[in-house]
Amino acid sequence: METTATVLVVDDDREIRSLLGDYLEANGYRAALAADGVEMKQVLDRQHVDLMVLDLNLPGEDGLTLCRRLRASSDLPVIMLTARDQPLDRILGLEMGADDYLPKPFEPRELLARIRSVLRRTQGLNNRNDPASNQSHQRLVFNGWSLDLVARHLVNPHGVVVMLSGAEFRLLRVFLERPNRVLNRDQLLNLTQGRDADPFDRSIDIQVSRLRQKLGDDARAPAIIKTVRNGGYVLAADVSAEDRT
Fold first, then answer.
1. Are 17 and 33 in contact (CB under 8 A)?
2. 51-55 and 78-83: which strand pairing?
């Protein structure tokens, strides 16, 4: 078996739930299934989940609402399932804190690849946060801000903690580890999500916008994460690594 991670599939279509559950278990994962937000909460309350596949169109509270609520208290990785003909839904899903999205209809193999990619990223971060690692005793400091690499949160110049989603944390860390270096969208997607961009992929732009908001960076004239025309983005700041106190 490749992994023993538990994947929670939240979809109101019984056939899709069953198909994905069987497919995930056949590929070495433990699968948990839920039809709506109520069942999702019940699963999360009674067992550990490593990643959630969340359909946007659910009865009762929809996937966007559930993702936003989850992000207020957890950095559990979320892959959002969206309708192919509704690109705005995919954008909103990323804005609510989803780590990745996949339009319906999709091939189970593609979903499996996305799951593996997201889990590699999140498990890699957890490994770097191991107490045996020197990196676990550091934080990255820039312009009066600091990113705690263990707690995985941002602290503003006044000492106030700013919570980050998993996707936001990974993106900011990529920038901080490469200060004053222009990174294009393909590089950022590869470094944060392990995949290439397609011509209509706006996920990095959305995540940069969300990071700017949390950093108080004026979108019209950003001072920290700057846009380079026809180039990508650059973190315009000096960065230092410090031991955690």
1. yes
2. parallel
pTM of the predicted model over 0.70: no
| Element spanning 14, H or E | helix 14-26
**CATH 1.20.140.10 describes domain 134-243:** no
Q: What is the pLDDT of residues 176-235, one digit of tens each?
A: 999 999 998 888 887 876 655 454 567 788 889 989 999 999 888 899 999 998 889 999
Domain spans in the chain, listed from the N-terminal domain onward: 6-128, 134-243
SS3 184: coil
B/e letters for 113-138, b = 16+ CB within 10 Å, e = fewer, are ebbbbbbebbeebeeeeeeeeeeeeb
**Homologous superfamily of 6-128 in CATH?**
Response regulator (3.40.50.2300)
Quick check: 179 and 239 in contact, CB under 8 A?
yes
